[in-house]
Amino acid sequence: MTLEEVVGSNSTEKKMETVSQALEELLVAAQRQDCLTVGVYESAKLMNVDPDSVVLCVLATDEEDEDDIALQIHFTLLQAFCCDNDINILRVSGMRRLEQLLEEETENGNSNEPRDLHCILVTNPPVQPLQCQALQDVSSFCEESRCRNQWVPCLDLQDR
Question: Ranges for the Ribosomal protein eL8/eL30/eS12/Gadd45 domain (predicted)?
Fold first, then answer.
């Protein structure tokens, strides 16, 4: 392994860790400001009605979801729609971490039914826009990935 490979892989790991942290911060902030749509069907409905308000689409799976054909078809359709409407997309593994992040905020809610965290949309309403560094960091990462012809970048969220 050359020095460039060692330094390059180390900086890539740091970049991925930074973006993962930014995504976590963004999801928590968006949920607090009621700027999250959670669920495959809920997300599809919102994108059909108001695609301009969506700034990020997070598609989350774990290994056990890889064989779910219906979910993969939904993901393919959502990705195509996002590409057509210039919406940033991230594929994420680490469903348990997503649950930890988003369930903490909803513990006061009355719903005992688990939420479908396979698709999460972050919206940015024009009246009171969501402004945070985490959104800029995640958006920059998505843009950099597209420049490298990686249209749907992948992140791994680690349990804590």
Answer: 22-105
